[in-house]
């Protein structure tokens, strides 16, 4: 077990900078998820930690030691790959014990470790099978078993659930979380799926274009995104962004969305945004769950408006409603019994206590 | 073959009257028609050889139906198999082919692994170069090779020309490029994550090659082995050029030089020798073919 630290890590391929000076501290026992769209540099970062890619600049430290030039086998790490990368000619037990056999561990210890890992992952019955005789989920368990038996300092997961179907993915996600709770090994996990990131991570690292956008706990990222990218990336359906501007009307600060829709800001928000220049181009960031059907009794900071729905999507426990405000598409979440219908008018409520205000040009959350 | 025929015949047939099974039936009929045609075309010479090998010289030269044996005899077989000379050819061929296969594999496997996996400056160009080498026909190569080996012989004082073991140096010029090339293909088809996993598991490059790549690419290695053996066993031009003394000859050259005396062709023995010579590759091929298919399909079905 060990902590991992990245200091101004850069990866260049010829002229392209895939990773642009990343700083990251991962504590011992921590489960860190690197998340971001394809090409954001998350896999490259993971592969640099693994030693599978050279570092163009900066330092990577595992357990306090700089490992820039240490080959993968001497970094004491284990990696689980997206396509499992099981050795097809070896049985499950042989796959799991390969690393230990190379290091000439005593046979009894190898057997004990494999048995223990197999028990932990519930694959004891499969121990003599070849990978081809296993389902996708079972293969992924074996791949994890191969990592666990080595008892490494750090686990690295490279999109391990991407090849599984949706149902199995949810199941394996819980398995991974359980395994981590038991073995407590420092883990770096790469995914493009923000749900996976939110559910698994102690802390999530959101990456974009080779840089870290924000590091934080899942709740921090969700409720206090630092940039428009993070605000839009985390959460499903994604946060709505509506062009808006601030107005002073009779001593109160108002948020004007369209010619006919303007809301008075709640006191706490008004105090926070009062210093902003009124000429700035701003965006209102509001999550679909804060755009609901209007109730008879409105709390403070909840404002209503009328609109005509374009499309509704009944999801069972909720109904997603889509409509436009001055040409900007907006998504809301209403109660399935609220009577939302395609093409029908509806009165909706916006919870301004949970709003975000963003600078349209810089993308910063204000 | 039949799958190909179905694919081709399937869409071209009119669906108007037909069904899937009707299309399939016709596709199969065409497949069988062409397969039988090919089988006849390719099996006629060996059958003719077999028939001739069972005839006496008198019957061969008699004006009877050449496609029938009226007085079958094993005399040709007995004569060849008791002839020290023929056994010598056989032995020379066997030792040359086996050693060439071993040498080829020892060179090709590491070469292919390096070219497929260890990205180094010029590796892609080298890989293409290896293939281009294979494209140069042996009929162009034998004269410079002869010259080169002559020089080596003069410089070192080791007799190479007109010795069977000279072929051990010559045949790999044919087998190594091709075997390397097809194994580059096999190695390249192994997912990159597999050697990365091995690397992280603590394997060196050599261990990755011996414990992961060779077992996983075994069907490819067997295909390459079969190729190297067949090429060495059947090679005619190089032994004809490089060896002349009777005790140094390999089977193909031995049969043609000793059983054709001037314009007298000992057809019975030539055919027998050719048939006996074809046996080892056939046996090896049949045995390895099973292994080859087993390697390809092992665990392909879900348990």
UniProtKB/TrEMBL annotation, chain B:
Its main location: membrane. It is found in: Cell membrane. GO terms for biological process: transmembrane transport. SUPFAM superfamilies: MetI-like. The chain crosses the membrane at residues 30-51, 89-114, 120-143, 164-188, 208-229, 267-288. Residues 90-288 form the ABC transmembrane type-1 domain. It is a multi-pass membrane protein. One of its GO terms (cellular component) is plasma membrane. Keywords: Cell membrane, Membrane, Transmembrane, Transmembrane helix, Transport. InterPro entries: BP-dep_ABC_trans_perm, MetI-like, MetI-like_sf. Pfam families: BPD_transp_1. The keyword NAD does not apply. Belongs to the binding-protein-dependent transport system permease family. This is Carbohydrate ABC transporter membrane protein 2 (CUT1 family).
């Amino acid at each position: 077990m060990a902590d991992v630290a990245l200091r101004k890590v850069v990866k260049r391929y010829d002229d392209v900078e895939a990773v642009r000076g990343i700083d990251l501290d991962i504590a011992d026992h921590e489960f860190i998820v690197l998340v971001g769209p394809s090409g954001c540099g998350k896999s490259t970062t993971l592969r640099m930690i693994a030693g599978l890619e050279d570092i163009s600049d900066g330092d990577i430290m595992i357990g306090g030691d700089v490992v820039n030039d240490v080959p993968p086998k001497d970094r004491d790490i284990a990696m689980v790959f997206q396509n499992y990368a099981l050795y097809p000619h070896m049985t499950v037990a042989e796959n799991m014990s390969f690393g230990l056999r190379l290091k000439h561990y005593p046979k009894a210890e190898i057997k004990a470790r494999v048995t223990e890992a197999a028990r932990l992952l519930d694959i004891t019955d499969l121990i003599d099978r070849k990978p081809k005789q296993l389902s996708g989920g079972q293969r992924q368990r074996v791949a994890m078993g191969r990592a666990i038996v080595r008892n490494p300092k750090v686990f690295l997961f490279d999109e391990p659930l991407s090849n599984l179907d949706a149902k199995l993915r949810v199941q394996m996600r819980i398995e991974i979380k359980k395994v981590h709770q038991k073995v407590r090994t420092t883990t770096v996990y790469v995914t493009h799926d923000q749900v996976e990131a939110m559910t698994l991570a102690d802390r999530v690292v959101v990456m974009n274009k080779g840089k870290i956008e924000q590091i934080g706990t899942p709740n921090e990222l969700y409720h206090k995104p630092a940039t428009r990218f993070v605000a839009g990336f985390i959460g499903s359906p994604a946060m709505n962004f509506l062009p808006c501007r601030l107005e002073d009307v009779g001593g109160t600060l108002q948020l004007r969305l369209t010619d006919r829709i303007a809301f008075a800001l709640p006191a706490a928000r008004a105090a926070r945004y009062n210093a902003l220049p009124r000429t700035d181009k701003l965006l209102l960031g509001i999550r679909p769950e804060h755009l609901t059907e209007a109730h008879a009794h409105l709390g403070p900071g909840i404002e209503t408006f009328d609109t005509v729905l374009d499309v509704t999507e009944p999801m069972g426990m909720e109904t997603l409603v889509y409509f436009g405000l001055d040409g900007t598409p907006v998504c809301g979440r209403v109660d399935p019994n609220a009577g939302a219908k395609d093409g029908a008018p509806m009165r909706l409520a916006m919870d301004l206590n949970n709003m975000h205000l963003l600078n349209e040009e810089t993308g910063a959350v204000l | 073959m039949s799958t190909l025929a179905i694919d081709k015949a399937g869409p071209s047939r009119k669906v108007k009257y037909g069904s899937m099974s009707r299309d399939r039936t016709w596709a199969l009929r065409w497949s069988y028609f062409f397969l039988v045609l090919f089988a006849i075309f390719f099996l006629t010479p060996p059958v003719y050889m077999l028939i001739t090998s069972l005839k006496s010289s008198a019957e061969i030269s008699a004006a009877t139906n050449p496609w029938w044996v009226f007085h079958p005899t094993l005399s040709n077989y007995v004569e060849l198999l008791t002839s020290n000379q023929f056994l010598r050819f056989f032995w020379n061929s066997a030792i040359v082919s086996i050693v060439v296969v071993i040498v080829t594999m020892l060179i090709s496997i590491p070469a292919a692994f390096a070219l497929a996996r260890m990205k180094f400056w010029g590796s892609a160009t080298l890989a293409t170069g290896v293939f281009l080498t294979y494209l140069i026909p042996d009929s162009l190569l034998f004269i410079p090779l002869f010259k080169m080996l002559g020089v080596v012989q003069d410089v070192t004082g080791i007799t190479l020309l007109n010795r069977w073991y000279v072929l051990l140096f010559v045949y790999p010029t044919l087998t190594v490029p091709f075997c390397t090339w097809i194994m580059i293909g096999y190695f390249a088809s192994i997912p990159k994550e597999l050697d990365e996993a091995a690397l992280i598991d603590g394997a060196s490059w050599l261990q990755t090659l011996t414990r992961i790549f060779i077992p996983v690419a075994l069907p490819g290695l067997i295909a390459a082995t079969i190729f190297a053996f067949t090429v060495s066993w059947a090679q005619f031009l190089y032994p004809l050029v490089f060896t002349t003394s009777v005790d140094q000859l390999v089977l193909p050259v031995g049969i043609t030089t000793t059983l054709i005396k001037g314009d007298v062709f000992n057809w019975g023995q030539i055919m027998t020798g050719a048939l006996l010579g074809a046996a080892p590759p056939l046996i090896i091929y049949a045995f390895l073919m099973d292994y080859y298919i087993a390697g390809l399909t092992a665990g392909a079905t879900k348990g």
